[in-house]
Amino acid sequence: FHYYIPGYIHTYDVERSNGFVGEVKKYIMGKRIVIISSERADNYKLFNEYTFGGIQKDLKIMFEDDMHPHCNHLDYLFFRDFVEKQYGLLGQPEKTIDFVYWGTSKRKGVGGNISGDERHLVLKEIRRSHLSSRFIGQFDGFKKDIGFTNDPKKLIPYLIDGRFTLCFQWPGSESYLTARYYEALSCDILPFLYKDYDKDNLLKVLPYQRISSANELYEKSKIYSNDLLEEVRHQYISMMPSKEEVYYSFCKKLEELLK
Predict the structure, then answer these.
(1) pTM recorded for the entire structure
(2) Which of 128, 124, 211, 131 lies closest to 166, judged by CA?
(3) pLDDT tens, position by position, 157-172
(4) What radius of gyration, in Å, describes the C-alpha atoms of the chain?
(5) Burial call 62-74: b when 16+ CB within 10 Å, e when fewer
(6) Full DSSP string of 11-24
(7) How far apart, in whole angstroms, are the C-alpha atoms of residue 209 and residue 190?
(8) Per-residue pLDDT for 91 more than 70?
(9) How far is CA 95 from CA 133, 161, 198, in A?
(10) Rounded to an integer, what distance in angstroms lies between the CA atom of residue 251 and that of residue 249?
């Protein structure tokens, strides 16, 4: 969706992306397409009317949560495997950064319309606070520390020395989980949840983990401890599916979409 926010992506990159999409359209015209999306804003409307608009197709969307409510536990396993191999013998670096965040601020949606998402306001408050912080990605109202990468091996070294982070979701999608909670715990980062994130409490989080403002985050960060982190992780591990369960659930959902 970022490619449809005016001025967000460099013109050259937008044109290059559009060129690739144009080539893909030649092969999918008149066919059934199943798109697997990890971003709630990358939805049916976006792909049907914008990305692949103007051609005949039978479009289906599968979000991460459609595969399995805890599909992103695979992220935890993949990240954790790298962390243990990379830092297992020497030990993990000392936690020197209070708050670490990776992603974007989501202030605008497709067409440049204001989205109603509040994270850019909260993240800006945290950036200007007494907490030490590291921001990886692209943000509104302040400069990033590091550009975003989708390569876990390049991302994890910038996460591993952080103490805690914050999980957000688009307004109206608070029942759906994102990868941040899982990725955070894999790097021994305590995840806090903003307002109604995971409103059905699929993650069975501690009341301590829920916050409604940057000020509440400041107060709760004062009692952060390794014991608290391990309590959260123990609760998390006790309820996670196996790789096989996620795979079976994914296959079942894909078969339904292909019928």
Answers:
(1) 0.92
(2) 211
(3) 999 999 999 999 999 9
(4) 19
(5) bbbbbbbbbbbbb
(6) HHHHHHHHHHHHHH
(7) 8
(8) no
(9) 12, 4, 27
(10) 6
